[in-house]
Write a structure and sequence with these properties.
heterodimer, A: mainly alpha, about 80% helix, B: alpha/beta, Rossmann fold, 2 domains, 7-stranded antiparallel sheet, 7-stranded mixed sheet, 10 helices
Amino acid sequence: MLRILGAGLVVAACGAGGLIMARSYSVRPQNLQSLAAAVQMLATEIHYARSSLPEACRRIAGQIDNPAAAFFARFAEVLAGGRGLTAAEALDQSLAVLADAGFANQDIELISQLGAVLGRSDAEDQLKHLAILYERLEHSRIKAEQERDKMARLWNYLGFCVGALVVLMLI
Amino acid sequence: MDRLLKCMAPNLRNLFHSVLDWDKVEEIRLRVNQPLVIKEQQIEYGLNAAGRCRPSEGFRVNADDIARTVEIMAENSWYALEDEIRAGYLTLAGGHRVGICGRVVLENGLIKTIKYINGLHIRLAREVPGAADQVMPQIVRSGRIISTLIVSPPGCGKTTLLRDISRQLSNRGFNVVVIDERSEIAACHHGVPQLDVGWSAYVLDGCPKAQGIAMVLRGMAPQVIITDEIGHPNDGLALADAARAGVQVIATCHGSAWDSVRERAWMRHGGAAFQQVILLSRRSGPGTIEQVLKLD
């Protein structure tokens, strides 16, 4: 009886581990979608309202979900902090929010590249850069979704299979 | 002045601790690879790590100091200030005007932007309540406002005088509309006047004068329109419309003598809007009234 209970626990634990791994693959597409939406909002703020960068980021932070919201709020706060930072420096200091939230390094790198140009040219040029960033985020999101579909299914089964294998080896 | 200093590159901020009396400072001049110079009413001096010094011994401002200062002044949002930059200046919170020099980028013969900025000329705005005391009897006679053109070279206190005229007319209950194309009169920040233009003044901020005059004539029922630096022929046409509508105008324009101003293109239509001209100089300090000319 005890053996059966132990075997069940091992299968359940490995299965749960597999499900957690599977779930982790669905977070990245969501994060990328949220960032892409925020980039589109920023383009709108620049195109129609000519809002200053801190003001636009503050407004965007109020309209999207975490962790992208926390990142935009932090960026607005650093920009408006009166420390005399350039947009690139303020962005660098804000990217830690994305890293802490588990964003992939390659996604953080995409946002980081924007720092070199953000706020430093006319609206037409800014919109071009934001459109390019949006395309890249969308491209990454599609790839992340394909990976999620493939890997999530794999991990959903793999966890339980590994659990069963361990049980068989122990018996 | 804290707000102004926050607009400077961090590298430059500490230098300003040796400015003793900010009320006297009129201009701050930053040029790439050249000394930082301050102009007070009658004197110029440099600033370096040791304090005040001769202008030529001032702290050498480098390209990064200028680029960083511009980025901070523009709130990291160059795109939001395209029109101002095309016109060669920025207006800071508080109404301070920053003239910009650098490499001009043209598109189809028109200025698109300025890059490689190499010089910033900061002119400090300040309120001088009472600056208009001497001219108010000329501007309001028997309870009626007399349309007035204020003429002087740059730096003689036109805008300061105009702001105080607005404040005094407004506080007497006249319905004043200030068309503040360059945000220098009321120094609006996010739409809210930072300088006192009186309790009954509306402020149309950042609007080209000619369009602004047409807008306020339609919607704001002004008794007097106050605006700065008339210069474009369209301004003259709009002023003529205001005069035809029975609205008084108090405005300024650059010039050192009335004879040179009356030959300008905008005067052809706009001249009829004014009943008198006040000529200013800085002979006895900014805002010295040289002459009041009655026009026929």
